[in-house]
Amino acid sequence: MSKVSIIGAHNTAFGSFVKKDKETREVTDLKSIYELINEAGRGALADAGIEAAQVDGIWVGSCSPSLFANQEHLAPNALEVDPMGLRFKPATRCEDACASSSVALYNALYAVESGRCQTALVIGVEKMNLLDTKGVTHALACSSHWASEGAMGMTFPGLFAEYAKGYRDHYKYSDAKLAEMLAAVAALCYRNGLDNPLAHFGKGSPADRLGLSSAAAILGLPEDKNPMIAAPLRLHDCSLVSDGAAGLVITRTDLARKRGKPVVEIAGIGQTTERMAINVRPNMWELMAGKEAARLAFAEAGIIAADIDVAEVHDCFTINQILCTEALGLSADGKAGEDYLAGRFTRDD
Predict the structure, then answer these.
(1) What angle do the packed helices 318-327 and 156-170 form, to 10 degrees?
(2) What value does the mean pLDDT of the chain take?
């Protein structure tokens, strides 16, 4: 069991917070990366019921903000959450691609557990929609192994398509069966989004208007509504390009318990790293580092997969949700797609 608990949290809404003129290609920023940081940080402090001056350090997670928002040195901007209370506080940006904000939380937790820091503010922020599709594709490719992947024209959808093909071939699924499983994952994500008032695709969104709440609805879309992006992944197998932020306040669990308010104990964490280039990985049908991270987290928490009531898994692409579900031990290897097709992992499961 870790010695750290969450005492405050805040999520902004997520969406495309820009206005793009199709004729002039002019882009107007409707909610800047700075505004997102401020909202998340201030909201988390307010939820914790503490003053900014009580924070000992700030950790900011963000993927490639220099490319997405022209702001390389990002962490000092978090001082603007409360300039008087946070001035001179140490602020550090963490970058680890899709795991950037998780790693920011881990580093803040390590600082609290070390005794160097008592209370920490953690902010995760992404501002992706200032770029056009070509720009986003390049920025994301910079989180691949550039020499052997990005520089060779490999895109992020292309990288995960390699996992989809590896999974299909290893477990001997047909293209049609794989498509059904991937569509079932996408449909569940859309259904969950409809119940989340902060979701990019919530009520009234294209997913809602098109009725994409079932695998059949997604599979029935015409080609122009669900084109192939990187075979076998189609448009609705790919996550949205979103802007948004979240903030947490963490402190020592013994201090959190004295507050007399509900807190969330961080029972266990597992942080691992896989070799980066896919051409040196042992296989392309499982997340081996993910399985080790889950093992470490469960061991520290003293639980097994069957003890989990709610899981939030990384769904950048539908195949990754399947792989993460298996890495967590919630499905047997090679069976998560079939479990999603069978209706598992809903609120009624």
Answers:
(1) 60
(2) 97
Q: CB–CB of 79/89 below 8 Å?
A: yes
Measured distance CA(133)–CA(240) in Å, rounded: 12
The CB density around residue 84, as the number of other CB atoms within 10 Å, is 9
C-alpha span between 39 and 55 (Å, rounded): 17
List, in order of start, the domains of the chain with CATH numbers. Answer: 4-129+242-264 (3.40.47.10), 151-239+269-349 (3.40.47.10)
Q: Give per-residue pLDDT as tens, 312-341.
A: 999 999 999 999 999 999 999 999 999 999
Q: Inter-axis angle of helices 288-301 and 318-327, to 10 degrees?
A: 50
174: left (phi over 0), alpha (psi -120 to 50) or beta: beta
**Residue closest to 34 by CA, chosen among 99, 83, 102:** 83
Determine phi and psi for 96, rounding to 5 degrees.
Answer: -155, 50
Overall pTM > 0.85: yes
Q: What is the pLDDT of residues 4-59, one digit of tens each?
A: 999 999 999 999 999 999 899 999 999 999 999 999 999 999 999 999 999 999 99
Q: Is the peptide bond before 206 cis (omega within 30 degrees of 0)?
A: no
pLDDT at 1: 81
CA 230 from chain center: how many Å? 21
Give dist(CA 161, CA 164) in Å, integer: 5
